[in-house]
Design a protein that fits this description.
The protein is an all-alpha fold. 76% of the residues lie in helices and 1% in strands. It has helices at 2-34, 51-58, 60-90, 98-106, 113-128, 139-167, 171-179, 184-195, 197-212, 216-221, 233-243, 248-279; strands spanning 37-38, 46-47. Strand 1 and strand 2 form a beta hairpin.
């Protein structure tokens, strides 16, 4: 049976590999090449070396977007995971109506990003109008608006992952801790959190990658206003590529740099958290 499976493995894997090469690998390689060219279409690309990359760092827009995105990622990863874990912990305490609460908290994740952005634009501007301001008056309003939006969308999804992790903790461990007189805080710190590390790894990866890649919510909520100060990297790349004639190569160079930054950070995060899983 095993020999038969090995014999036909590549036959069954080939369609998927071809689709992967056509839909991802070929465009990815082409994108890297185009980042070193000046072009309007892929057929009229002219090689310009590192000129596009020099232009990326010569303009303040990219660095502003990078700083804004970094701040956003740090705050959103902390708030989303803390809130999600707290809700998961509460909803595994055998309280009444936990299934209803799980459903309610998860539902915002089902709403599309652009729709969600416009919903929160109306809500937040409605509140801020009482104080004579709106989301685009000051970058801090747009920043915290995006934080609230992402938390509302992502907390329920991460909560489900944390609930699965908490429910996998052996009951006898919790009973032993209780018998030994461990406080709830000590049980949480010494047993629950270490044994939920696989869930923490997954949630950190998802929240960090989603925060870095945030685009449609940013477009709908602030569109980078005021003056591009709330534009995240994905939105800045989009505007460079599509809104500035002759800057397609610069936009592609930004996309390559963005990919490298996210890839390095995500690999580091996975490496660090997986080591803690092994230790525990």
């Amino acid at each position: 049976m095993q020999k038969s499976m090995k014999k036909y493995f590549w036959l069954f894997a080939l369609p998927t590999l071809i689709a992967f090469a056509i839909a991802f690998l070929a465009p990815f390689i082409m994108g890297i090449y185009l980042s070193f060219t000046k072009f309007t279409t892929v057929t009229n690309a002219t090689f310009v070396g590192l000129d596009n990359y020099n232009k990326v760092f010569a303009t303040p827009e990219f660095m502003n977007a990078l700083i804004f995105t970094t701040k956003f990622v740090v705050v959103s990863v902390i708030t989303v995971n803390v809130c999600a874990f707290a809700l998961a912990y509460l909803l595994t305490r055998k309280l009444k109506g936990t299934n209803l609460f799980r459903t309610v908290f998860f539902m915002p994740n089902l709403i599309g990003g652009i729709v969600l952005g416009y919903i929160w634009l109306i809500i937040l501007n409605g509140i801020l109008n009482y104080f004579g301001v709106n989301l685009t008056v000051d970058p801090k309003y747009g920043f915290w608006g995006l934080i609230i939006l992402l938390n509302w969308q992502q907390v329920g999804y991460m909560m489900i992952i944390y609930i699965a992790g908490i429910q996998n903790i052996p009951g006898e461990l919790m009973e032993s801790a209780k018998i030994d007189g461990a406080s709830k805080w000590m049980t949480l710190r010494k047993i629950t959190i270490p044994l939920v590390m696989p869930s923490i790894t997954i949630c950190l990866f998802l929240t960090m990658s989603n925060a870095f890649k945030l685009f449609d919510q940013n477009l709908a909520l602030t569109d980078g206003a005021p003056g591009g100060k709330t534009a995240m990297l994905a939105l800045d790349i989009y505007k460079t590529f599509y809104n500035k004639v002759g800057s397609e190569g610069v936009g592609q160079a930004k996309a390559v740099i963005f990919f490298l930054i996210v890839a390095v950070i995500m690999l580091l995060q996975l490496s660090i958290t997986r080591k803690k899983e092994v230790e525990n």
